C-alpha cells in the first residue's frame, strides 16, 4: 500500500542520514553499534554542549522505552526525525562544526584558524579566498566569525 503514506516523514533525508550515521559512529567509541549513556556524555562534551549523565538519561528514557541505557542508530534516527528535536540537532551540529574551526576555543573563528583547519582537511585555501570568506561572514565587522555569524552563513547554505 503506497497510497496515502506518511505526510509526516519518518525518515531523514538521505544526506542527513549519512551525516547522522557518521556522528553516531563517532559517538560509538567501542564500535559495538550502540551508544551508551557514558559514550553520549563524552560525545556531548566534545560537541561543547556538556550534558550531564542525568540529562542524557532523561533523553534516553524518552527514546528508549526498554531502558537499556544505550541507543542504537535506528533509535537515534527516529529521534532526530522528530521535528522538535530537529532544531536542537541543527544547533548542536553547528556548534560542533564551529568548535572544529575555533581552535583556541575563544568563541570566534579567526582567518588563521579558518586556514589552519581547512589545511588540515587537505584543502589549501589562498589568502585572498580566506579573507573573502571571513569578510562575507563577518557581519559586525570585527574581523572574526562569531558563532552567530557562522550559523548565519551555514544556514544560508553558501558555505
Ligand atoms: Ca558503544
Ligand atoms: Ca578562536
Ligand atoms: Ca564578527
UniProtKB/TrEMBL annotation:
It holds the Pfam family EF-hand_7. Keywords: Calcium, Metal-binding, Muscle protein, Repeat. InterPro entries: EF-hand-dom_pair, EF_Hand_1_Ca_BS, EF_hand_dom, EF_hand_pair_protein_CML-like. It comes from the Eukaryota. SUPFAM superfamilies: EF-hand. Residues 15-50, 51-86, 89-124, 125-159 form the EF-hand domain. One of its GO terms (molecular function) is calcium ion binding. The keyword Repeat applies. PROSITE patterns: EF_HAND_1, EF_HAND_2. CDD domains: EFh (cd00051). Coiled coil: none annotated. PANTHER family: EF-HAND CALCIUM-BINDING DOMAIN CONTAINING PROTEIN (PTHR10891). This is EF-hand domain-containing protein. It comes from Magallana gigas.
